[in-house]
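sorry to bug you again but im stuck and you know this stuff better than me. below you get a single protein, a line of residues and a line of whole numbers that encode the local backbone shape. mainly i need to know what kind of three dimensional shape the backbone takes. anything you notice is useful, everything is just below:

***
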Amino acid sequence: MKRLVILGGGESGVGAALLGKAKGYDVFLSDKGKIKDKYKDVLNYNEIEFEDGHHTEAKILNADLVMKSPGIPDKSPLVKQIRNKGILVVSEIELAAKYTKANIIGVTGSNGKTTTATLIHHILKEELEVGLSGNIGKSFAQQVLEQDYPNYVLEISSFQLDDIVDFKPHIAILLNITPDHLDRYDYKFENYIASKFRIALNQTKDDYLIYDADDEVINDWLKSNKVQSTLLPFSLTKTIENGAYLDKEEIKITIDNNQIIMPTNNLTLEGKHNIKNQMAASTVAHLLKIRKQTIRESLENFQGVEHRLEHVLKINKVQYINDSKATNVNATYYALESMESPTIWIVGGVDKGNNYKELFQFVNEKVKAIICLGVDNEKLMETFGTMVDTVVETQFMSEAVKIAYKLAETGDTVLLSPACASFDLFESYEDRGRQFKDAVRSL
């Protein structure tokens, strides 16, 4: 019996453990931190051996295969030991994909993954049986075990792509590439770029790569590297023969001389970046022969995702917006770009080597006050201190929201768009977003 060791007892780890056991592996799961009770219950119920609070090397280094959670870096001494022993290390998507014949649509990019993957699923589910997984919701491995849909939309991070071997989506979407997570890539942007392009690594000419033709980084990489897949670019500025582009107020999508046209005037998601997300999603739907009417209606009734430019409440004619999912500068760029009124901006958290320069134009134009919410706000204070009249710092969400409430005047917007990870003060970006919404509701 082959031994499968799983590092990390979160959603993907526990899902992989269940699938591994069902497929006849001797499974052992190990987590250096604390495993949540709900996951322990599942492991106990299924009689899967596990440990938390530490790693027992003797029980790990005898593995035939190791699946590691995307949160564990390759630099960790244990992972190095495993690799030195010649044991194969894979991600959950690699493991789960082996056990399904489903048509896989993989979505990656520095920003917009969740929105685009959720939107694709929202359109496809009207006419196809389709699961949504990867970085969202119930783990891919568990869905393969329990539902095994004929189609899956997977939101895939670079960390998950780092540990694929044979994994190949039939349709890959690469939304954009901007510097993010550089702490995991030796602070080399080119390493991170190569990691994102792994989504097309195993594709053949019968597969598709949908990508942003306005993204310089993507274009440059494609000029000097070969991909096998059929390319379907999308653009806001160029005319695209095979793919999607914006022509005045309409999205035009052409695949094999078959064109569909989508008006953009009734779309629910605002902002230029969302037109791109909608182009990518509509291209997938058109490829999979979804009816034009279905695509149009789905785009018009899509509600967006939680913590992404989410309108929370209007109080005294001040709009409060939760964009906690903006964990990097580029995401915050989109948020500030779409602001149309004087903005009080709540920013800060764990800085992943951020360069805030690209935000200067919007901060000068639109931001009237900055509230720094982090354990260490020094870099933010230095960067923006002279740009706006009011810069305040705090380490409590409730206090940040109260300060914003005091500073705001009729017609202003209060925007939580941190541009940073959340782990200094919060459990996750979701926890941060919910605390913001709770604080706003209790004003």
